[in-house]
Amino acid sequence: MAPYESDGSSGAEEADDLRWGRRKAARYVVPVAVVGVAAATIGLVPALADSGDPNLPKITAQQLIEKIAKSDVQQLSGTVKISTDLGLPDLGGLESGIASGLAKGGDGSSADPTSKLTELASGTHTVRVAADGQDRQKVSLIESAAEYSVIHNGKDVWGYDSKSNEVYHGTASQDGKRHKDEAPATPKDFADQALKSVDDTTSVTVDGTAQVAGRDAYKLLIKPKHASGTTVGAISIAVDAKTGMPLKFTLTPASGGAAVVDAGFTRVSFARPAASTFDFTPPKGAKVTEEKKDARAPEHAQRPGASPKDFAKAGSRVLGKGWNSIAVFDTGTKGGVPSSSGKGDLSGFLGSLGDHVSGKFGKGTVFSTRLVNALITDDGKVYVGAVTKGTLVTAANTGQ
What we know:
This protein has 400 residues and is an alpha+beta fold. The chain has helices at residues 12-26, 61-70, 94-105, 113-116, 187-196, 299-302, 308-313, 345-353, 389-398, and strands at residues 34-35, 38-39, 75-84, 123-132, 136-143, 146-153, 156-161, 166-171, 202-212, 215-224, 232-240, 246-253, 261-269, 287-290, 317-319, 326-330, 355-359, 362-368, 373-377, 381-385. The chain is globular, with a radius of gyration of 21 Å.
């Protein structure tokens, strides 16, 4: 994605500064877990529209990106409103079955954070977050008459589902990073992932100011320089003018309409949360599941992020560049996806969700959302990216 477009500064010195800013930003990146072939992209309800137009000192895109990279907020608490509009079809309750299957495929508990990620793929959600340094964080998903929480306190990571009264217990990584199963829950999580991919295919500008959750903010606008082939229209990040922390993240699709990703604070405080916020003891009678250690593959291979580098680490190859990057996996399984003429209800259902395509590569099925599309070929290859169906087919035909 691209060099920063500022207002009047240029030259080799600026280029060096920009590369420094990108390297600094990359240090703060938190990988985004992938839910199936559609990444866990999260949006915000329209009620979080910007309010006010604060008069702030002028700032260049370069200065703003460096402000984000230098941000070092250690204590905060607040509420994030989340909704998702990937344009997924109505699965008629199948979502809960998928979540259950993920839990069984993971550590077998409804409190396993992995099993909760699919809930963020559609609908509207309220998330409460709290942090006190690198060793204490809490994320709570507020549900109807129930609550799900992930608590990191020292070496322990707890997941608790009040609805099923189940508890998941794991350990934090030794390098102090977030636990491998934590879902992205704040605008910073999404902003970090977007900034990680900034290169020369992207336009980055300052797009005025706004107020978010009562805080004055600058708006950073990230757009593909050439929209052809990508499903991404633009990314807007509201950056707190004082702390440099992202307060709101909005991703709009190239096709127009509602945002696919639009996550933002409705309330935020940078005061230190009470220590008791991070205390957790399994309730009486709760079923406790301990995390299973999987020594078969390194963590990054089990849970790839969303950037081309992450896909490469996960054992895939990457075709294209920037916004048109496509990850290619070879599953080794022949036969592709069951068609609508296959036997059984599930076969017909799966076939009806995709578009059947053919080309020099053979035959396959394309599964589409408003952001992430995937082509599964009959010879077992998977092409996936934030690109159009035509771009996937062309990549499969040429292998480039």
